[in-house]
Amino acid sequence: MTRRLAAVPDAPPRAVLYLRQSSYREESISLELQETAGRDYCARQGYQVVAVLADPGISGRTWRRPAVQRAMAMLEEHEADVVVLWRWSRLSRSRKDWALAADRADVAGGRIESATEPNDVTAAGRFARGVMTELAAFESERIGEQWKEVQASRVARGMPPGGKLPWGWRWSAAGPAEVDGDKGEVIAELYTRYLAGAGGRSLAAWLNEIGQKPMHRETWNDRVVIQILTSPVHAGLVSYRGQTYPGAHDGVVDEATYQAFLRERARRAAGRDGKRRYLLSGIAHCAACGSPMTGFTITHHPRSRAPWSAYRCTSLGKGPHSGKGPWSLTLHVVEAAVVEWLRSIAHDVEGAARAVAEAADAGATRRLEAQRLAREVASLDAQLTRLTEQLAADVVPISAYAAARDSILRKRAALAERLDEAEQIAAVTGAEEPSQAASSLLAEWGTLGVDEARSVLRQLIARVDVDCAAKSARVVPLWSN
């Protein structure tokens, strides 16, 4: 019997090795071991290794890893034909990310293979891969739960949730953190100098002059200095999930000094922003076309030596809308209309309260509608994930998958748009006491910062319709929107 010989391809399949060293100590397999296993596998399969990409010490629970994104891009850009992993869990520990990665590989005409686990396309092989990816997701959830318990336990005992301490600190034999030598005095002096007006560069220069050495660097720079001062450990506090808690250690500065540093840092950051901020940007809308308006300033206006500020439509006056009527209105006219409306609300206590009460029932209905839409969007996401898993398991052909996927994505886009509108409406059902809010805002008008004033206005105003042609503005309250 004559055997038929398979055609030999002109070039061997191109493989990119993707390596990830787990951030979890129990599963931290060296990158060298993974690369050796991957190269041996490629040699057996006749693959040409064209790249080795690694994400060292990054959790598999996140898909925001530069090397894995580059590996998938190489498949999509036809720079590689196959991504080779040490184990399936190296790619991701997320069920959703795994399904989407398989979809991207299939659509690109590539594939993902494991150097140490089954790759065959039989039913048994697909089942084994499914079990292993599910096991990876289970292990991720287990590790996450354990780590949360450890962090919560450490914070409850007044210790930082992680094992790292900022510069100037070390772990004591008794457990709590302690100051490393005389560095506490140096840190306290840094806060004093910063609050006196010194910047990051001058502080870094001072540290270099007195011979203090940073961690993992030869010299100090402004970024590292400010990053160190931001740690609440110096004030005897520990940080966990955006909140600070009392620590078991004594700080080198008091909490008032630390809070003063945070305020001063925020003030300087705002001062470095070269853009002028406008109270009604995004709240003001063009009455002619409905587009949002933004503020702008002309430093040298031909009619006035003083700067001239206004709100302008983002659509009229440019592109195809150019020449279709006025597209800006001076700032004081628009904001004066808002002030006048606030005065009317501040004096009409009964009318404003009645309007809000009437909107409360409608607001409850809108919140229920938002919840219903959110469940529908989540259901479509689940359908898309199952569909992608079926494609990866060769249950559905690519043509059927593409048609079903596009249908689901269209439905999801429509629902997501409705959900966004419903959530915005539900979130802005009006302030409980609009008259009091209006009175308070008027009392501090001109002294509040832009963010504070906008936060109050957002509780009262849906938008401000600006008629540039008539040179007027009309406030639309939330409860009439």
TrEMBL record:
Keyword Coiled coil among UniProt keywords: yes
Coiled-coil ranges (or none): 370-425
GO molecular function, one term: DNA strand exchange activity
Keyword Nucleotide-binding annotated: no
Domain Recombinase, residue spans: 166-271
Pfam family, one: Zn_ribbon_recom
UniProt entry keywords in alphabetical sequence: Coiled coil
Domain Resolvase/invertase-type recombinase catalytic stretches: 14-158
PANTHER family in UniProt: DNA RECOMBINASE-RELATED, DNA-INVERTASE FROM LAMBDOID PROPHAGE
Name of the protein: DNA invertase Pin-like site-specific DNA recombinase
Organism encoding this protein: Cellulomonas oligotrophica
